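WARN no homologs supplied; continuing
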Amino acid sequence: MKGNNKSRFTLDMTPELRTRLKIAAARKGVTMRQYSLSAIEQQLEREEAGVLASGAFSQETVEKAKTLQKSVFGKRRLTDESTELIHQDREERVSQL
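OK structure emitted
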């Protein structure tokens, strides 16, 4: 997984929702994975366009986000790989014992 710049994301859903997803993907002739990724990308694009159009990302907002990120994570580099963050935190806790 790490070599191709992707990370895994697990999604729990009800059997009914899984069935609906399976049917929708089959109608489009794609896998459930492909359908889900496409739907997520489309929704994010709509939301991002709405935020940008509304001007909600002012310079002040960006600076507040950066300050919050720095106070929470310090100088640690954040990756998209959640398991990597878990391993890093575990190593920190073990080294403090």
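Helices lie at 15-28, 32-54, 59-73, 82-95.
OK
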